[in-house]
Amino acid sequence: MADPLPPVDTLTHGGTAPSGDGRILILACGALAHEITALIRLNGWSHMDLACLPAILHNTPDRIPDAVAGAVAQHRDSYDRIFVAYADCGTGGALAATCARLGVEMIAGPHCYAFFDGLDRFAARGEDDMTCFYLTDFLARQFDAFVTRPLGLDRHPQLRDAYFGHYTTLVYLAQTDDATLTARAEDAARRLGLAFERRRTGYGDLETALARA
């Protein structure tokens, strides 16, 4: 059973090591730690342990495949199987190629927005969502760490329109019913000058993928 989670800043910048005596290791992005831990508890998946790579890797997606490969090599001898809880996540197919070479499975889809929304549903939206900027529960918590500071908007707010001028709507894909997170997402939309939409997705296809792991 997964241990209580470390602070969100640790999940963002440091990642977590596995603990427990499970037979399957879920190797995940730190941005999914809350959701995967909740699913492990909800479903009684005591055969699963969780280890997270730093979520901030999403700001340099070219580094994700090597980080995953290193973690698989580090933990492979301790588990019967390793399942990679990442989608493509901006790696341009490089992560899928790495997982295929290592003989480990990963989540299907382009990114977590798609599998939270449901891959079929997200694909069906198509061009309707091309002007949408997405947040999840994690990104609502960590908006400043992933958006404001990396883009320099705290120092140069005039850059907002250069980055976000082609967007019309901030879409908050909510995994939980949390009024505080909804308020944070609404505030992010206001700061970016975008309309706000909240979609309650729950865990989407993440639960389905883990159930097959």
TrEMBL record:
Protein name as it appears in the record: DUF1638 domain-containing protein
Domain of life: Bacteria
Protein species of origin: Palleronia salina
Domain DUF1638: 52-210
